[in-house]
Fold this protein.
Amino acid sequence: MNLITTMTDAINTITDEENLEQTEKLFNAIADLISKSVSSSALNATLKESFVASLMDDDLHEATLDTLQLSLVKASENERLRMTVLDVTKSAFVGALNDDDFVRELMASIVSAIVQASKEDELTLSLLEVTTRAVSQALADEAFVKELRGAVKSTLQDGDLYKAGARGVFAAAFGHRSSSKTEDDASLPKLSTV
């Protein structure tokens, strides 16, 4: 029995309606583990160091991408696995988003992680380096630059965008808003479109 078949059977067992009570206990245990691990300073420090090291290691990038690509290709060839993973993912998202405590803790953890990350010079520099490299590669791609120019040109030629901006500035400057759009338009200077 190969690994994909074993994983598919395990996921099907977890998602089976007959095992709903055990599945709920498993998910609660996983959620509890995640909540406790987020507050562990030792785990956070280890994850941060690993993340920084992985950002700097080109061989690890290449190996990770190769492994992910191969795994995705293999997984995409198995229809049963695809459907099972889709069902599990959908159920997990729906369940998580309906849990107010989970959403609140998740948002607090994300905000806390962002604040902590912004204080770490080494992590900030690593992310900046990765972002700079990505932007440089994007700007070297002629097709991307052409699409970007077209989008910017289209936006700059949109007269309604300027009118909406002028109305917002006018309302902010004078502290009121007219009751109708025509009065707003009449009070603004005419803008010519390019």
